[in-house]
C-alpha cells in the first residue's frame, strides 16, 4: 500500500519504466528458475551447470519434484498396479506432498480417494477421518528415497509383480 501511494505521485513515464522493469525482472527470474528445474543449471556436478554448479544434488530441493504425467503414464502401463488401485478402497502415502502428486496421477485413472498417514498430514487431517479407513483395503505408495533402509526383503516376492521399477519403491 505504501508503494502504491508513492507510485500515485510519480509521473506516467516513471510509472511505465517501473512497471516495465518489474516485468522484465520477473520474467528473467522465472526463466532462470525454469531452467534450473528442467536442466539443473545450479547443480554441482551437472552437465548443464553454470560455472561448475553451486548446489550439491543432495541439497537441491528441486530434485524432489515429481512429474505427474510420467507417474500417471507409468501407472497406466502397469496393469497389476492399476488393478490393485481399482480394487482397493483408498490410496495412501506417508508424506503429505507425495499424496498430492499421487492424487493428481491416480484421479484420471481411478476415482479412489488419496490420503496421508503421517505425523504431518497437513490438509489431509481435515479432508478424511482416519477411523473411516479401518477395516478397508488400501494401497500404500512411497518413494525409495524416503525409506532407503526399509526392510522389504520378506515381501519382495509379493511386491515384484506390483513394482515395475525393480525393487519396491
Structure commentary:
The structure is a single chain. The longest helix is centred in the first third of the chain and has 28 residues. This protein starts with a helix and ends in a 10-residue tail after the last helix. It is mostly helical and 169 residues long. The protein has 2 domains: 61 residues; 97 residues, no CATH class. The strands form 2 sheets. Strands 4-3-5 form a 3-stranded parallel β-sheet. Strands 1-2 form a two-stranded parallel ribbon. Strand 3, helix 5 and strand 4 form a beta-alpha-beta unit. The C terminus is likely disordered.
Q: How are the elements arranged and paired?
A:
Elements: H1 2-7, H2 12-39, E1 43-44, E2 55-56, H3 68-77, H4 79-87, E3 90-93, H5 96-106, E4 114-116, H6 124-127, E5 138-140, H7 156-159
Parallel strand pairs: 1-2, 3-4, 3-5
Helix pairs in contact: 3-5
- Unreliable residue stretches: 157-169
What's the alpha carbon Rg, rounded to whole Å? 23 Å
Structural class: mainly alpha
Shape: extended
- Number of helices, counting only DSSP H or I runs of 4 residues or more: 7
**H/E element sequence:** HHEEHHEHEHEH
Total strands: the figure is 5
The proportion of residues in beta strands is 5-15%
The N- and C-terminal alpha carbons lie at a distance of 49 Å
Q: The biggest beta sheet, please?
A: 3 strands, parallel
Amount of helix = 40-55%
Amino acid at each position: 500500500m505504501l508503494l502504491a501511494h508513492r507510485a500515485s505521485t510519480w509521473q506516467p513515464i516513471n510509472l511505465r519504466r517501473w512497471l516495465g522493469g518489474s516485468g522484465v525482472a520477473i520474467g528473467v527470474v522465472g526463466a532462470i528458475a525454469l531452467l534450473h528445474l528442467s536442466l539443473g543449471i545450479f547443480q554441482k556436478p551437472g552437465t548443464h551447470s553454470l560455472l561448475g554448479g553451486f548446489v550439491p544434488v543432495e541439497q537441491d530441493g528441486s530434485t524432489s519434484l515429481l512429474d505427474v504425467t510420467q507417474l500417471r503414464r507409468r501407472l497406466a502401463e502397469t496393469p497389476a498396479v492399476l488393478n490393485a488401485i481399482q480394487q482397493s478402497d483408498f490410496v495412501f502415502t506417508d508424506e503429505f506432498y507425495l499424496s498430492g502428486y499421487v492424487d493428481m496421477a491416480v484421479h484420471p485413472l481411478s476415482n479412489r480417494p488419496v490420503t496421508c498417514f503421517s505425523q504431518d498430514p497437513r490438509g489431509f487431517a481435515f479432508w478424511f477421518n482416519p477411523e473411516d479407513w479401518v477395516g478397508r483395503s488400501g494401497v500404500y505408495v512411497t518413494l525409495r528415497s524416503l525409506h532407503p533402509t526399509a526392510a522389504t526383503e520378506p515381501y519382495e516376492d509379493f511386491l515384484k509383480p506390483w513394482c515395475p521399477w525393480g525393487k519396491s519403491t
